[in-house]
Specification:
homodimer, alpha+beta, Jelly Rolls, 4-stranded antiparallel sheet, 23% strand, globular, DNA-binding
Chain lengths: 191, 191
DNA sequence: GATAAAAATTGACCTATGGTAAGAAAACTA
DNA sequence: TAGTTTTCTTACCATAGGTCAATTTTTATC
């Protein structure tokens, strides 16, 4: 919990009441590698803040192939935002790629923090804005870069993630097969 | 201006002071087809709300190819959010695809509306959340669908946009060449 | 540390989409 | 509406990346 509170405090002034409220709606958890926190098709009530380890969210398409939407490591948030914000069942699965410690927060309760403690709004807004920026960049990258370029950029932007992931996780994030990623890695090593 | 105020009021209670403030920072404009509202490389200070017509934002890659990030029609917002929220120069160009009427708002001033009129926050937050959801969906579609499937989905999701755009605008949004889109359209017509 | 399971690599072949260039059609413009 | 420019289509070939199957390497488990 300290990590989350500190992160928030580095961005805004948080009254002790607000801090207490946050504590009251949060639950620290240890999850083991392979745990599924959100299951495609079920209702989504929680969002997760990562203290240590690595999680990912992905969907499974009609051919059974996985497509990774997001990785989350220390200090990142993860959930199925499509489900949460459109009140639908989960279209994503969120799983832990390592033994991880996370903070689980009920989304409805987190949402009422805005009316209870308006001071929290700017923090939340900034996070959303940064999120939008990163999504815009990812879409533009997907549109204009080749697979090897996207892989290079991934390694550059997220140097800390590779240690937690299997290659096929990364391939499914980049939008290529694991075989293609393997060939890209070989070509890269030869240079 | 009415359109924007009404849109906000359909979502939240807006005090007359807040409404007045909004008026004071907004400027209604008529722009003609082909006008460039934001130019790649320049500083970005405005965001735009569309009353009529159609705009798009796109980047130009190192080979001179255009990649469309977003279209905006009636009631949509558009700008270069990457530049605005990371305080960078524009990496996007925003142009009007038709004669359009828009509301131009200074982003810094719009941003201070939150401290001046906290009632505005939920409206802004909801918009951001919806935006995130649509971006997540777009990324997942790009990862799992073929080009013809993405085109079908585009027509289904944005039936009103096609009338304003050239095929190569849509192709550059879908991540394919205009030649490929042309072939897809032919194949579709034959069915 | 031996064994089993999972992941990564490799090779042969395939397919969707891209590139180029030319001509046809449509959309502006005078 | 004739002329010009832009956009769209089409044909042919090129290529990035996908598929499938076999093999090797790595990781997990007992």
């Amino acid at each position: 919990m300290k990590e989350l509170i500190n992160k928030i405090k580095s961005s805004i002034e948080l009254s002790s009441e607000a801090e207490e409220y946050l504590y009251s709606i949060s639950k620290e958890k240890t999850v083991s590698k392979g745990s599924v926190l959100i299951q495609q098709g079920q209702t989504v009530k929680k969002i997760f803040f990562v203290n240590s380890g690595c999680l990912r969210s992905f969907c499974i398409d009609k051919n059974g192939k996985e497509h990774t939407l997001q990785f989350a490591i220390k200090d990142w948030w993860i959930s199925d935002y499509i489900a949460i914000h459109s009140d639908e069942l989960a279209s994503l699965t969120v799983e832990s790629l390592t033994d991880s410690t996370i903070i689980e927060i009920n989304e409805k309760k987190l949402n009422s923090i805005h009316s209870l403690f308006p001071e929290f709004e700017p923090f939340y807004r900034k996070n959303l804005e940064r999120h939008v920026v990163s999504l815009h960049k990812r879409i533009l990258n997907q549109l204009q870069l080749t697979a090897p370029e996207r892989y290079d950029l991934f390694l550059e932007q997220y140097p800390d993630i590779e240690q937690y992931t299997r290659n096929y996780h990364i391939a499914s994030y980049l939008g290529i097969t694991q075989e293609s990623l393997s060939r890209i890695r070989v070509a890269k090593a030869k240079k």
